[in-house]
Design goal:
Helix content: 10-25%
CATH class of the largest domain: Alpha Beta
Shape: globular
Structural class: alpha+beta
Number of strands: 14
CATH topology of the largest domain: Trna Endonuclease, Chain: A, domain 1
CATH architecture of the largest domain: 3-Layer(aba) Sandwich
Number of helices: 3
Number of domains: 2
Strand content: 35-45%
Largest sheet: 6 strands, antiparallel
Radius of gyration: 18 Å
Length: 237
């Protein structure tokens, strides 16, 4: 996925979840939209190198959007609006082997009681495959899973509900795949952060027992693009 032109700066502070004060390299100080409702643990240190995109939409209250932050391990994408597009492009390019080769791909399809699946793959011979995508950027080197990408970084009742609804699609005869997209390049595997949200861990265990598949892929991130790079092993023990 190509990124728009990005503007470098330094993070002053992130607050109220969706706001971040930034000092651009140009010397301008501004408030940017932070498109991430999570805790962003380790990704909001004052003084960190960051990159913003800019919109000319006059209806927006904030013209700039917080996109990337630099850590000791490299660039990290914090925009939770990007993973669906990144994965859709990767599926179309055949970069995610277990789910390639379907005849059609639709995004944001209603299912369950009050949910929308991120991607619905369909094929006259293979049937339907319901694909849910979660953005992953948590890595805690001093936590219970050093070196691992972890999800979630805060309690997510909505995420647990999605897993239960995907399990229902499998029981109805379809295929369902949970994809964890890691928007960073310095992780060696994927773990569920059960200490943060034990209910989500339990929901994933139930879903996989019902036949829901789980995959994790990380990304190659530059200031020009974010693309799927490789599969990461799941460490769910």
């Amino acid at each position: 996925m190509q990124l728009p032109t990005l503007y470098p700066g330094r993070l002053i502070k992130r607050y109220k979840r969706f706001l971040a004060d930034i000092r651009l390299d140009s010397g301008e100080t501004l408030t940017a939209h932070c498109p991430n409702p999570g805790a962003m643990t380790g990704l909001q240190d004052p003084g960190a190198r960051v990159w913003l995109s800019r919109s000319d939409n006059p209806k927006r209250k904030l013209s700039h959007t917080f996109e990337l932050i630099e850590t000791a391990g490299g660039l990290v994408g914090i925009n939770t609006g990007h993973p669906n597009a990144v994965v859709a492009e990767a599926i179309a390019a055949g970069s995610i082997g277990p789910i390639q080769g379907y005849a059609s791909l639709r995004r944001e399809v209603k299912y369950g009681e009050k949910s929308r699946i991120d991607i619905l793959l369909d094929d006259p011979d293979r049937g339907k495959c319901w694909v849910e995508i979660k953005n992953v950027h948590l890595k805690r080197d001093d936590g219970p899973n050093p070196g691992a990408a972890e999800f979630p970084d805060s309690v997510t009742a909505r995420g647990a509900r999605h897993l239960d609804e995907m399990a229902n699609q499998v029981r109805a005869g379809d295929r369902a795949v949970m994809i964890y997209l890691v928007q960073r390049m310095d992780c060696d595997r994927f773990c569920v952060a059960g200490d943060i949200d034990p209910a989500y861990r339990d929901a994933l265990t139930r879903a996989m027992a019902a036949g829901v598949e789980a995959l994790c892929v990380d990304t190659e991130i530059t200031t020009e693009a974010i693309v799927v790079r490789r599969h990461l092993p799941l460490d769910l023990g």
